Request: fold
Amino acid sequence: MAEDKRVTDEILKADYSYEFDKIRQNMVIVSHFKYGKARDNFASGRVDAIKTAELCIEAFKKDKNLEHLADAANYLMFRFKYPFEGEEYKHTDSDGSVGTIGTPINMEGDY
Reply:
């Protein structure tokens, strides 16, 4: 069990960004005061989280400002937190994955 935790901790240390989470959390706090409660803005569809996230990604493509990616992630998180009718989280296996653009290192030669 301790070995599993150590492996998990090593993976997260190498492949996860807690800094990203902290930046996003701070942005949510600032946005709460600037725009109001997220529930009021996103649960009703008053703000379109998906289209706004897409705007952030487009802005990032133009100016390479990583802040836009944190913004986009927050908008996607709000959509996840306040899904619309008929939307739900369903875990998919690799057969249900949309795939990637490019070849992940562990997939080389698997064609």
Notes: The chain is about 60% helix and 0% strand. The two ends are 35 Å apart (CA to CA). The chain has a mean pLDDT of 93. The longest helix spans residues 18-35.
